């Protein structure tokens, strides 16, 4: 104990001591062992009424600094020391209400049960009611949600005449969305997919202040591993014994130093991937050089300082040209001409189609009398049929090539809105049907559209008109869709089509809404922005999006393109009525 006191004295007095960091980075502490925090936040406004005390308490909940000191300021002395808020919290709409509960303002109990005693004028019970937008989980990921939120507080007048919250506040905080956005920054933490040889974004939210501590907070998330929504879909490159040797440090020249320990025996290939993971993740919070050390030496031999430009491309290579299906044929978006082969000359009555990410293969759904069937093969050649059965097939979607090399050899489609068929090319050149465990996704309803992400770690789907994202977990020959999450539940409805956006952490959705028919969303649904609706005629039937390409949508009049949210839609150069556009993927 004496050593602890000596250290604290050094930290407070010897500010210039080189061994003491100038600011303390947030440390994850279990709820059970959370220390009592000093209340170093301003006191509430003098003579604030109980309703105002509770409202200001809710607004202060978004500031996590110093053990939620800003919130503790609204508690009485007893609760300030005893309160242990959870690391996760519920995000509500900023238009929440606070009302007095006349049945519980007796001072006899801390519940809403009526009391026989006379009302105590020095005690009021306040109920908070709001609309849930989601939760920030203990692993700093946003999980969308909906429904009502309600919490009740007892507020007591203190000896000095000021009102303070006197009942134990619920451990799960309510945080308004505007205060959350003002106090937390989204960061895209990268995790490696050994399956596709690419890095997968994992959106997390960390305290925005102090800003200089952001790189350290990002590094903590990397070491903690992927969020629950990506667990099993990506690889954690760090073993259990890997840690930060010191806090992430800003050097005199403006660069950052990240010093790791516990990487002895790790090979050069994994070290290069670790360097890439750190640099890609840090791009969210810094543009400076990063010095990467491990066990006292450069993490990667001969390469001590890193920038994003030093990294090779880990994205799956994509064919730049988009295609469209129209009139039973597949045509090029770039010139409107039918593509070579049977899919372009009308030999196959094409209903829908998908091009592999590398551009070398094509999968089409063909009309066959009153039923449909699937054809898969090389672009420009005849496509063999694949027997699937069923009365309907969704537009196919391609898995990226394994380890980012070679042609794509796996394509998915949804049979009768309820079974995901995974077609895999065997060494003999035959497409074999394998299954996908989609029970968690199907529990939400029937699947309309299904799109694999270009890194292969997620799927986006329309389920009963809702937009859902789930992770793809592979174990040997078994593939399971896990952690399905409805994005913008209750707000985004009647989704007709979806595609992965121009960046790996965004989606673009087409809806039947006449006022906002095209929306861009973050992969966790926390943010949704509407594209300009000018020139579009609802409903927008289809949408196509890809990196470095304009977004193309199809409405009753034909095809339209745009590149920015506020941009007016322009007719696509080779627009045709009833055309459905698509990019590789």
From TrEMBL:
Transmembrane segments: none annotated. Residues 215-303 form the GerMN domain. The keyword Signal applies. Keywords: Signal. The keyword Signal applies. PROSITE patterns: PROKAR_LIPOPROTEIN (PS51257). Residues 1-18 form the signal peptide. This is GerMN domain-containing protein. It comes from Amycolatopsis dendrobii.
């Amino acid at each position: 104990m004496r050593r602890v006191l000596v250290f604290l004295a050094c930290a407070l007095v010897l500010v210039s001591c080189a061994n003491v960091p100038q600011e303390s980075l947030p440390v994850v502490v279990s709820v059970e062992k959370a220390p009592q925090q000093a209340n170093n936040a301003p006191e509430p406004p003098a003579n604030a009424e109980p309703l105002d005390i509770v409202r200001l308490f809710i607004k202060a909940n978004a500031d996590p600094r110093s053990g939620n000191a800003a919130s503790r300021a609204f508690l009485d002395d007893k609760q300030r020391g005893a309160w242990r808020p959870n690391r996760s919290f519920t995000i509500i709409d900023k238009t929440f209400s606070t009302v007095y509960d006349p049945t519980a303002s007796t001072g006899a109990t801390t519940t809403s049960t009526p009391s026989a005693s006379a009302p105590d004028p020095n005690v009021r019970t306040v109920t908070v009611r709001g609309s849930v937008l989601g939760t920030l989980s203990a692993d700093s990921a946003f999980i969308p949600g909906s429904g009502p939120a309600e919490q009740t507080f007892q507020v007591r007048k203190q000896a000095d005449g000021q009102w303070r919250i006197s009942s134990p506040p619920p451990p799960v905080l309510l945080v308004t969305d505007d205060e959350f956005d003002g106090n937390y920054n989204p960061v895209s933490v990268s995790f490696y997919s050994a399956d596709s040889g690419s890095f997968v974004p994992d959106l997390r939210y960390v305290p925005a202040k102090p800003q200089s501590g952001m790189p350290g907070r990002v590094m903590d998330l990397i070491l903690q591993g992927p969020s629950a929504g990506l667990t099993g879909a990506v690889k954690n490159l760090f073993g259990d014994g890997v840690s930060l040797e010191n806090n992430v440090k800003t050097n005199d020249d403006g660069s950052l130093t990240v010093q790791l320990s516990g990487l002895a025996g790790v090979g050069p290939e994994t070290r290069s991937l670790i360097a890439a993971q750190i640099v890609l993740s840090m791009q969210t919070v810094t543009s400076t050089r990063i010095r990467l050390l491990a066990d006292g030496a450069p993490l990667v031999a001969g390469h001590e300082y890193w920038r994003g430009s030093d990294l090779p491309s880990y994205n799956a290579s994509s064919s730049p040209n988009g295609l469209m299906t129209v009139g039973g044929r597949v045509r090029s978006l770039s010139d409107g001409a039918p593509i070579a082969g049977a899919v372009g000359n009308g030999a196959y009555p094409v209903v829908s189609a998908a091009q592999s990410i590398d551009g070398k293969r094509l999968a089409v759904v063909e009309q066959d009398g009153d039923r449909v069937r699937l054809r898969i093969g090389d672009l420009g050649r005849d496509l063999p049929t694949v027997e699937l059965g069923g009365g309907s097939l969704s537009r196919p979607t391609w898995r990226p090539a394994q380890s980012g090399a070679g042609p794509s050899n796996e394509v998915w489609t949804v049979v009768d809105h309820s079974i995901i068929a995974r077609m895999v090319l065997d060494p003999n050149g035959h497409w074999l049907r394998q299954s996908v465990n989609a029970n968690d996704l199907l529990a939400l309803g029937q699947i309309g559209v299904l799109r694999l992400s270009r890194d292969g770690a997620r799927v986006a789907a329309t389920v009963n008109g809702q937009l859902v994202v789930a992770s793809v977990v592979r174990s040997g020959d078994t593939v399971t869709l896990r952690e399905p999450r409805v994005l913008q539940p209750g707000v985004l409805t009647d989704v007709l089509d979806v595609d992965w956006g121009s960046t790996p952490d965004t989606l673009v959705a087409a809806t039947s809404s006449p006022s906002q028919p095209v929306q861009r969303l973050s992969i966790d649904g926390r943010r949704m922005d509407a594209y300009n609706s000018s020139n579009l005629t609802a409903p927008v039937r289809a949408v196509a999006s890809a990196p470095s390409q304009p977004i193309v949508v199809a409405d009753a009049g034909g095809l339209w393109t745009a590149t920015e949210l506020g941009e007016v839609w322009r007719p696509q150069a080779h627009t045709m009525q009833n055309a459905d556009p698509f990019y590789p993927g």
